[in-house]
Amino acid sequence: MSDWTDLIPQAARDYIAGRRLDEVECIVADIAGVARGKAMPASKFVHQDRFFLPNSIFLQSITGEWVDNPMGAFTEPDMILTPDWATATAAPWTADVTLQIIHNVEDQQGNPVPTAPRNVLKRILALYEAEGWKPVIAPEMEFFLVARNLDPNQPIIPPMGRSGRRAAGKQAYSMSAVDEYGKVIDDIYDFAEAQGFEIDGILQEGGAGQVEINLAHGDAVHLADQIFFFKRQIREAALRHDCFATFMAKPIEGEPGSAMHIHQSVVDVKTGENIFSEPDGSESIQFMYAIAGLQNHLPAVIALLAPYVNSYRRYVPDFAAPINLEWGRDNRTTGLRVPISGPAARRIENRLAGMDCNPYLGLAASLACIYLGLKEKRMPRPECIGDAYMNETDLPYNLGDALDLFSDSAPVREVLGIEFCTVYEAVKRNEYKEFLQVISPWEREHLLLNV
Protein backbone atom coordinates (compact mmCIF):
# COMPACT_ATOMS: atom_id res chain seq x y z
CA MET A 1 0.00 0.00 0.00
CA SER A 2 3.01 2.29 -0.18
CA ASP A 3 1.68 3.75 -3.43
CA TRP A 4 -0.99 5.71 -1.53
CA THR A 5 0.00 5.66 2.14
CA ASP A 6 2.78 8.10 1.28
CA LEU A 7 0.04 10.59 0.33
CA ILE A 8 -1.81 10.59 3.65
CA PRO A 9 -1.02 12.76 6.71
CA GLN A 10 1.65 11.70 9.16
CA ALA A 11 -0.90 11.09 11.95
CA ALA A 12 -2.71 8.54 9.77
CA ARG A 13 0.58 6.83 8.88
CA ASP A 14 1.53 6.70 12.55
CA TYR A 15 -1.85 5.18 13.42
CA ILE A 16 -1.45 2.25 11.05
CA ALA A 17 2.33 1.86 11.46
CA GLY A 18 3.27 -1.75 12.07
CA ARG A 19 -0.34 -2.92 11.93
CA ARG A 20 -2.56 -4.35 9.25
CA LEU A 21 -5.12 -1.82 8.01
CA ASP A 22 -8.48 -3.60 8.09
CA GLU A 23 -10.99 -1.15 6.69
CA VAL A 24 -11.32 2.20 4.89
CA GLU A 25 -14.44 4.34 5.18
CA CYS A 26 -15.07 6.39 2.02
CA ILE A 27 -17.30 9.25 3.17
CA VAL A 28 -18.91 12.53 2.17
CA ALA A 29 -21.07 14.97 4.12
CA ASP A 30 -24.71 15.22 3.05
CA ILE A 31 -26.92 18.33 3.38
CA ALA A 32 -27.30 17.78 7.13
CA GLY A 33 -23.60 17.05 7.64
CA VAL A 34 -24.23 13.33 8.17
CA ALA A 35 -21.38 11.08 6.99
CA ARG A 36 -22.55 8.95 4.09
CA GLY A 37 -20.55 6.58 1.94
CA LYS A 38 -19.12 3.09 1.90
CA ALA A 39 -16.88 1.04 4.15
CA MET A 40 -14.71 -1.54 2.44
CA PRO A 41 -11.84 -3.86 3.25
CA ALA A 42 -8.52 -2.12 2.82
CA SER A 43 -7.41 -4.90 0.46
CA LYS A 44 -10.20 -3.90 -1.92
CA PHE A 45 -9.78 -0.15 -1.45
CA VAL A 46 -6.17 -0.20 -2.67
CA HIS A 47 -7.24 -1.56 -6.07
CA GLN A 48 -9.83 1.16 -6.78
CA ASP A 49 -9.22 4.78 -7.71
CA ARG A 50 -12.86 5.88 -7.64
CA PHE A 51 -16.17 5.00 -6.03
CA PHE A 52 -19.80 5.67 -6.81
CA LEU A 53 -22.81 7.04 -4.92
CA PRO A 54 -26.14 8.27 -6.31
CA ASN A 55 -26.67 12.03 -6.34
CA SER A 56 -29.89 11.47 -4.39
CA ILE A 57 -27.94 11.47 -1.11
CA PHE A 58 -28.19 15.28 -1.29
CA LEU A 59 -32.00 15.02 -1.51
CA GLN A 60 -32.36 13.18 1.79
CA SER A 61 -33.81 15.04 4.78
CA ILE A 62 -32.73 14.66 8.40
CA THR A 63 -35.66 12.26 8.91
CA GLY A 64 -34.47 10.04 6.08
CA GLU A 65 -37.22 11.07 3.67
CA TRP A 66 -36.42 11.56 -0.01
CA VAL A 67 -37.32 14.93 -1.46
CA ASP A 68 -38.48 15.26 -5.05
CA ASN A 69 -35.67 16.68 -7.15
CA PRO A 70 -36.61 20.32 -7.82
CA MET A 71 -34.07 20.47 -10.65
CA GLY A 72 -35.84 17.92 -12.88
CA ALA A 73 -36.14 14.17 -13.40
CA PHE A 74 -35.21 11.96 -10.45
CA THR A 75 -32.99 9.41 -12.23
CA GLU A 76 -30.34 9.10 -9.47
CA PRO A 77 -27.22 9.11 -11.65
CA ASP A 78 -24.01 8.00 -9.99
CA MET A 79 -21.50 10.56 -8.83
CA ILE A 80 -17.76 9.90 -8.97
CA LEU A 81 -15.99 9.88 -5.60
CA THR A 82 -12.21 10.17 -5.45
CA PRO A 83 -10.23 10.21 -2.20
CA ASP A 84 -8.89 13.49 -0.85
CA TRP A 85 -5.78 11.94 0.65
CA ALA A 86 -5.08 14.94 2.89
CA THR A 87 -8.23 14.10 4.89
CA ALA A 88 -7.25 10.52 5.76
CA THR A 89 -7.58 10.10 9.51
CA ALA A 90 -7.94 7.36 12.08
CA ALA A 91 -11.24 6.06 13.41
CA PRO A 92 -9.69 5.14 16.78
CA TRP A 93 -12.97 4.06 18.43
CA THR A 94 -13.40 1.07 16.10
CA ALA A 95 -12.52 -2.47 17.10
CA ASP A 96 -10.23 -2.92 14.10
CA VAL A 97 -7.71 -0.63 12.40
CA THR A 98 -9.80 1.75 10.31
CA LEU A 99 -9.17 4.95 8.35
CA GLN A 100 -11.75 7.53 7.30
CA ILE A 101 -11.19 9.43 4.06
CA ILE A 102 -13.35 12.28 2.82
CA HIS A 103 -13.91 12.04 -0.92
CA ASN A 104 -14.19 14.66 -3.63
CA VAL A 105 -17.56 14.56 -5.40
CA GLU A 106 -17.82 15.10 -9.16
CA ASP A 107 -20.32 14.25 -11.86
CA GLN A 108 -19.49 11.85 -14.68
CA GLN A 109 -18.09 14.72 -16.77
CA GLY A 110 -15.60 15.65 -14.05
CA ASN A 111 -17.43 18.75 -12.76
CA PRO A 112 -17.86 19.39 -9.03
CA VAL A 113 -21.36 18.38 -7.96
CA PRO A 114 -22.90 21.74 -6.94
CA THR A 115 -25.19 20.28 -4.26
CA ALA A 116 -22.33 18.69 -2.28
CA PRO A 117 -21.82 20.93 0.81
CA ARG A 118 -18.02 20.66 0.70
CA ASN A 119 -18.12 21.85 -2.91
CA VAL A 120 -20.29 24.82 -1.90
CA LEU A 121 -17.58 25.95 0.52
CA LYS A 122 -14.90 25.44 -2.15
CA ARG A 123 -16.98 27.56 -4.52
CA ILE A 124 -16.95 30.46 -2.05
CA LEU A 125 -13.21 30.11 -1.49
CA ALA A 126 -12.66 30.24 -5.27
CA LEU A 127 -14.43 33.63 -5.31
CA TYR A 128 -11.99 34.89 -2.67
CA GLU A 129 -9.04 33.42 -4.56
CA ALA A 130 -10.06 35.28 -7.72
CA GLU A 131 -9.70 38.54 -5.76
CA GLY A 132 -6.32 37.58 -4.30
CA TRP A 133 -7.78 36.91 -0.85
CA LYS A 134 -7.76 33.92 1.50
CA PRO A 135 -10.08 33.61 4.51
CA VAL A 136 -8.70 32.50 7.85
CA ILE A 137 -11.17 30.74 10.14
CA ALA A 138 -11.20 29.77 13.82
CA PRO A 139 -14.35 27.91 14.93
CA GLU A 140 -15.67 27.26 18.42
CA MET A 141 -17.73 24.13 19.00
CA GLU A 142 -20.32 23.91 21.77
CA PHE A 143 -22.22 20.73 22.61
CA PHE A 144 -23.99 18.96 25.47
CA LEU A 145 -23.25 15.68 27.14
CA VAL A 146 -26.62 14.28 28.19
CA ALA A 147 -28.04 11.17 29.78
CA ARG A 148 -29.04 8.46 27.32
CA ASN A 149 -32.43 9.37 25.89
CA LEU A 150 -34.12 6.21 24.61
CA ASP A 151 -37.65 7.64 24.45
CA PRO A 152 -38.01 10.77 22.28
CA ASN A 153 -41.18 11.64 24.21
CA GLN A 154 -39.15 12.21 27.36
CA PRO A 155 -37.20 15.45 28.00
CA ILE A 156 -33.43 15.42 27.71
CA ILE A 157 -31.66 15.58 31.08
CA PRO A 158 -28.01 16.16 32.09
CA PRO A 159 -25.69 13.18 32.53
CA MET A 160 -24.62 11.67 35.81
CA GLY A 161 -21.16 12.90 36.81
CA ARG A 162 -18.41 11.04 38.65
CA SER A 163 -19.75 12.47 41.95
CA GLY A 164 -23.00 10.55 41.44
CA ARG A 165 -24.92 13.80 40.88
CA ARG A 166 -26.25 15.13 37.62
CA ALA A 167 -24.25 17.84 35.89
CA ALA A 168 -25.33 21.31 37.02
CA GLY A 169 -25.81 24.43 34.94
CA LYS A 170 -24.53 27.94 35.57
CA GLN A 171 -20.99 26.64 36.09
CA ALA A 172 -19.26 28.34 33.16
CA TYR A 173 -15.45 27.93 33.17
CA SER A 174 -15.60 25.72 36.27
CA MET A 175 -12.77 23.17 36.28
CA SER A 176 -14.54 20.91 38.78
CA ALA A 177 -17.67 20.92 36.60
CA VAL A 178 -15.79 19.73 33.52
CA ASP A 179 -13.99 17.13 35.67
CA GLU A 180 -17.40 15.55 36.41
CA TYR A 181 -17.20 13.88 32.99
CA GLY A 182 -13.43 13.87 32.69
CA LYS A 183 -13.30 10.36 31.21
CA VAL A 184 -15.27 11.51 28.18
CA ILE A 185 -12.95 14.52 27.80
CA ASP A 186 -9.92 12.24 28.08
CA ASP A 187 -11.21 10.09 25.22
CA ILE A 188 -11.90 13.20 23.12
CA TYR A 189 -8.29 14.28 23.61
CA ASP A 190 -6.98 10.76 22.86
CA PHE A 191 -9.09 10.44 19.73
CA ALA A 192 -8.01 13.90 18.55
CA GLU A 193 -4.35 13.02 19.05
CA ALA A 194 -4.75 9.80 17.05
CA GLN A 195 -6.43 11.80 14.29
CA GLY A 196 -3.77 14.51 14.25
CA PHE A 197 -6.20 17.28 15.28
CA GLU A 198 -5.12 20.25 17.36
CA ILE A 199 -7.48 21.32 20.16
CA ASP A 200 -6.88 24.89 21.27
CA GLY A 201 -8.79 24.42 24.50
CA ILE A 202 -11.72 22.70 26.25
CA LEU A 203 -13.90 24.45 28.80
CA GLN A 204 -17.17 24.13 30.69
CA GLU A 205 -19.90 26.30 29.20
CA GLY A 206 -22.95 27.74 30.95
CA GLY A 207 -25.34 24.83 30.43
CA ALA A 208 -25.59 21.64 32.46
CA GLY A 209 -23.15 19.24 30.80
CA GLN A 210 -22.30 21.81 28.12
CA VAL A 211 -18.74 21.80 26.78
CA GLU A 212 -16.88 24.08 24.37
CA ILE A 213 -13.93 23.05 22.21
CA ASN A 214 -11.87 25.70 20.44
CA LEU A 215 -9.91 24.85 17.31
CA ALA A 216 -6.78 26.59 16.07
CA HIS A 217 -7.24 29.02 13.17
CA GLY A 218 -6.56 27.93 9.62
CA ASP A 219 -7.96 27.05 6.20
CA ALA A 220 -11.76 26.95 5.96
CA VAL A 221 -12.12 23.57 4.21
CA HIS A 222 -9.58 21.94 6.51
CA LEU A 223 -11.40 23.21 9.61
CA ALA A 224 -14.82 22.24 8.26
CA ASP A 225 -13.39 18.74 7.71
CA GLN A 226 -12.20 18.72 11.33
CA ILE A 227 -15.61 19.74 12.68
CA PHE A 228 -17.22 17.06 10.52
CA PHE A 229 -14.84 14.48 12.00
CA PHE A 230 -15.07 15.91 15.54
CA LYS A 231 -18.84 15.56 15.70
CA ARG A 232 -18.49 11.86 15.06
CA GLN A 233 -15.63 11.22 17.45
CA ILE A 234 -17.25 13.20 20.28
CA ARG A 235 -20.40 11.11 19.94
CA GLU A 236 -18.28 7.96 20.06
CA ALA A 237 -16.41 9.17 23.15
CA ALA A 238 -19.71 9.83 24.94
CA LEU A 239 -21.13 6.42 24.07
CA ARG A 240 -18.11 4.77 25.69
CA HIS A 241 -19.22 6.28 29.00
CA ASP A 242 -22.95 5.63 28.90
CA CYS A 243 -24.09 9.07 27.75
CA PHE A 244 -24.93 10.89 24.55
CA ALA A 245 -23.25 13.90 22.97
CA THR A 246 -25.69 16.16 21.17
CA PHE A 247 -25.12 19.09 18.83
CA MET A 248 -28.75 20.20 18.87
CA ALA A 249 -28.99 23.97 19.07
CA LYS A 250 -31.27 23.82 22.15
CA PRO A 251 -31.52 20.33 23.65
CA ILE A 252 -32.60 21.19 27.23
CA GLU A 253 -35.40 23.55 28.14
CA GLY A 254 -34.21 26.41 30.34
CA GLU A 255 -30.55 25.92 29.46
CA PRO A 256 -28.41 27.89 26.97
CA GLY A 257 -28.12 26.70 23.38
CA SER A 258 -25.05 25.46 21.55
CA ALA A 259 -23.34 27.70 19.01
CA MET A 260 -20.62 27.31 16.43
CA HIS A 261 -19.02 30.75 16.75
CA ILE A 262 -16.99 31.57 13.64
CA HIS A 263 -13.95 33.86 13.92
CA GLN A 264 -13.10 35.21 10.47
CA SER A 265 -10.38 37.31 8.93
CA VAL A 266 -9.06 37.66 5.39
CA VAL A 267 -5.44 37.84 4.25
CA ASP A 268 -3.93 39.19 1.06
CA VAL A 269 -2.43 36.17 -0.71
CA LYS A 270 0.53 38.13 -2.10
CA THR A 271 1.56 39.86 1.13
CA GLY A 272 0.16 37.48 3.73
CA GLU A 273 -1.18 40.51 5.62
CA ASN A 274 -4.60 40.76 7.22
CA ILE A 275 -6.69 43.06 5.01
CA PHE A 276 -8.76 44.07 8.05
CA SER A 277 -5.76 46.09 9.36
CA GLU A 278 -3.86 49.04 7.92
CA PRO A 279 -0.03 49.08 7.98
CA ASP A 280 -0.19 51.35 11.06
CA GLY A 281 -2.34 48.75 12.88
CA SER A 282 -5.63 50.61 12.64
CA GLU A 283 -8.87 49.11 11.31
CA SER A 284 -9.11 49.18 7.51
CA ILE A 285 -12.06 50.21 5.39
CA GLN A 286 -12.30 46.57 4.25
CA PHE A 287 -12.97 45.64 7.87
CA MET A 288 -16.01 47.94 7.85
CA TYR A 289 -17.15 46.53 4.49
CA ALA A 290 -16.96 42.98 5.89
CA ILE A 291 -19.10 43.89 8.91
CA ALA A 292 -21.63 45.56 6.60
CA GLY A 293 -21.75 42.45 4.42
CA LEU A 294 -22.63 40.34 7.44
CA GLN A 295 -25.28 42.80 8.60
CA ASN A 296 -26.84 43.08 5.15
CA HIS A 297 -26.81 39.43 4.09
CA LEU A 298 -26.89 37.26 7.22
CA PRO A 299 -30.72 37.29 7.37
CA ALA A 300 -30.74 35.57 3.98
CA VAL A 301 -28.42 32.77 5.14
CA ILE A 302 -29.92 32.14 8.59
CA ALA A 303 -31.58 29.08 7.03
CA LEU A 304 -28.04 27.64 6.67
CA LEU A 305 -26.78 28.77 10.09
CA ALA A 306 -30.00 27.69 11.86
CA PRO A 307 -31.20 24.78 9.72
CA TYR A 308 -33.87 23.15 11.93
CA VAL A 309 -37.00 24.15 13.81
CA ASN A 310 -35.12 23.63 17.08
CA SER A 311 -32.44 26.11 15.97
CA TYR A 312 -34.70 29.10 16.58
CA ARG A 313 -35.21 28.20 20.24
CA ARG A 314 -31.61 29.29 20.75
CA TYR A 315 -32.27 32.89 19.64
CA VAL A 316 -33.53 34.23 22.96
CA PRO A 317 -32.12 37.08 25.09
CA ASP A 318 -30.12 36.54 28.28
CA PHE A 319 -28.86 33.08 27.31
CA ALA A 320 -25.59 34.36 25.79
CA ALA A 321 -27.12 33.90 22.33
CA PRO A 322 -27.42 36.57 19.64
CA ILE A 323 -30.80 37.99 18.68
CA ASN A 324 -29.49 40.82 16.51
CA LEU A 325 -27.06 41.88 13.80
CA GLU A 326 -25.44 44.64 15.82
CA TRP A 327 -21.66 44.76 15.99
CA GLY A 328 -19.42 45.80 18.84
CA ARG A 329 -15.91 45.54 20.15
CA ASP A 330 -15.61 42.91 22.88
CA ASN A 331 -19.39 42.88 23.32
CA ARG A 332 -21.02 39.45 23.68
CA THR A 333 -24.57 40.82 23.45
CA THR A 334 -24.03 41.60 19.77
CA GLY A 335 -24.44 39.07 17.00
CA LEU A 336 -21.17 40.29 15.47
CA ARG A 337 -18.37 40.68 17.99
CA VAL A 338 -14.91 42.11 17.41
CA PRO A 339 -12.64 40.32 19.91
CA ILE A 340 -9.63 41.95 21.53
CA SER A 341 -6.62 41.29 19.30
CA GLY A 342 -3.54 42.74 17.70
CA PRO A 343 -3.65 44.02 14.09
CA ALA A 344 -2.48 40.71 12.58
CA ALA A 345 -5.31 38.81 14.29
CA ARG A 346 -8.07 41.38 13.78
CA ARG A 347 -11.24 39.43 13.04
CA ILE A 348 -15.01 39.30 13.25
CA GLU A 349 -16.75 36.71 15.39
CA ASN A 350 -20.07 35.62 13.90
CA ARG A 351 -22.09 34.37 16.89
CA LEU A 352 -25.23 33.43 14.96
CA ALA A 353 -24.38 29.92 13.70
CA GLY A 354 -25.76 27.03 15.71
CA MET A 355 -23.73 23.89 16.33
CA ASP A 356 -26.47 21.97 14.53
CA CYS A 357 -25.49 23.49 11.17
CA ASN A 358 -23.52 21.61 8.56
CA PRO A 359 -19.98 23.01 9.11
CA TYR A 360 -19.29 23.32 5.37
CA LEU A 361 -22.49 25.27 4.82
CA GLY A 362 -22.15 27.36 7.99
CA LEU A 363 -18.68 28.54 7.00
CA ALA A 364 -19.72 29.01 3.36
CA ALA A 365 -22.70 31.15 4.39
CA SER A 366 -20.72 33.39 6.72
CA LEU A 367 -17.86 33.83 4.23
CA ALA A 368 -20.35 34.54 1.44
CA CYS A 369 -21.71 37.49 3.45
CA ILE A 370 -18.22 38.90 4.00
CA TYR A 371 -17.36 38.42 0.32
CA LEU A 372 -20.49 40.30 -0.73
CA GLY A 373 -19.64 43.07 1.72
CA LEU A 374 -16.11 43.44 0.35
CA LYS A 375 -17.49 43.66 -3.18
CA GLU A 376 -20.37 46.02 -2.38
CA LYS A 377 -18.23 48.41 -0.29
CA ARG A 378 -21.00 49.63 1.99
CA MET A 379 -20.57 50.86 5.55
CA PRO A 380 -22.12 49.11 8.56
CA ARG A 381 -24.50 50.57 11.08
CA PRO A 382 -22.81 52.42 13.96
CA GLU A 383 -21.16 50.26 16.58
CA CYS A 384 -23.45 49.14 19.40
CA ILE A 385 -22.21 50.45 22.72
CA GLY A 386 -23.97 48.78 25.62
CA ASP A 387 -26.53 45.98 25.83
CA ALA A 388 -27.63 44.93 22.35
CA TYR A 389 -30.35 42.74 23.87
CA MET A 390 -32.31 45.95 24.37
CA ASN A 391 -32.70 46.29 20.60
CA GLU A 392 -35.28 44.62 18.38
CA THR A 393 -34.27 41.30 16.82
CA ASP A 394 -33.06 41.33 13.22
CA LEU A 395 -33.54 37.60 12.79
CA PRO A 396 -36.35 35.45 11.40
CA TYR A 397 -38.40 33.78 14.11
CA ASN A 398 -38.75 30.36 12.50
CA LEU A 399 -37.41 28.14 9.73
CA GLY A 400 -40.23 29.02 7.34
CA ASP A 401 -39.48 32.75 7.53
CA ALA A 402 -35.75 32.05 7.18
CA LEU A 403 -36.34 30.01 4.03
CA ASP A 404 -38.42 32.83 2.55
CA LEU A 405 -35.50 35.24 3.05
CA PHE A 406 -33.09 32.67 1.61
CA SER A 407 -35.29 32.18 -1.44
CA ASP A 408 -35.65 35.93 -2.08
CA SER A 409 -31.94 36.89 -1.95
CA ALA A 410 -30.49 36.97 -5.46
CA PRO A 411 -26.93 37.88 -4.34
CA VAL A 412 -26.76 34.98 -1.88
CA ARG A 413 -28.20 32.50 -4.39
CA GLU A 414 -25.69 33.63 -7.00
CA VAL A 415 -22.58 33.18 -4.85
CA LEU A 416 -23.71 29.89 -3.24
CA GLY A 417 -24.99 28.47 -6.52
CA ILE A 418 -28.56 28.38 -7.83
CA GLU A 419 -28.78 24.59 -8.02
CA PHE A 420 -27.53 24.13 -4.46
CA CYS A 421 -29.90 26.78 -3.10
CA THR A 422 -32.87 25.23 -4.92
CA VAL A 423 -32.15 21.74 -3.58
CA TYR A 424 -31.37 22.98 -0.05
CA GLU A 425 -34.64 24.91 0.11
CA ALA A 426 -36.60 21.87 -1.07
CA VAL A 427 -35.04 19.64 1.60
CA LYS A 428 -35.63 22.16 4.38
CA ARG A 429 -39.21 22.96 3.38
CA ASN A 430 -39.94 19.24 3.43
CA GLU A 431 -38.50 18.97 6.97
CA TYR A 432 -40.52 21.98 8.11
CA LYS A 433 -43.70 20.47 6.65
CA GLU A 434 -43.05 17.22 8.53
CA PHE A 435 -42.53 19.11 11.79
CA LEU A 436 -45.80 21.00 11.44
CA GLN A 437 -47.64 17.67 11.21
CA VAL A 438 -46.42 16.61 14.70
CA ILE A 439 -48.63 17.38 17.72
CA SER A 440 -46.46 18.55 20.63
CA PRO A 441 -46.84 17.83 24.39
CA TRP A 442 -47.57 21.56 24.92
CA GLU A 443 -50.58 21.32 22.64
CA ARG A 444 -51.90 18.23 24.42
CA GLU A 445 -51.33 19.74 27.85
CA HIS A 446 -52.92 23.13 27.27
CA LEU A 447 -55.40 22.62 24.43
CA LEU A 448 -56.83 19.13 24.88
CA LEU A 449 -59.31 20.07 27.64
CA ASN A 450 -59.24 23.86 27.65
CA VAL A 451 -60.26 25.08 24.21
UniProtKB/TrEMBL annotation:
Keyword field contains Ligase: yes
PROSITE patterns: GLNA_ATP, GS_CATALYTIC
Cofactor: Mg(2+)
One example of a Gene Ontology biological process annotation: glutamine biosynthetic process
SMART domains documented for this protein: Gln-synt_C
Gene3D superfamilies documented for this protein: Glutamine synthetase, N-terminal domain (3.10.20.70), Glutamine synthetase/guanido kinase, catalytic domain (3.30.590.10)
PANTHER family associated with the record: GAMMA-GLUTAMYLPUTRESCINE SYNTHETASE, GS CATALYTIC DOMAIN-CONTAINING PROTEIN
Protein name: Glutamine synthetase
The organism of origin for this protein: Paenirhodobacter hankyongi
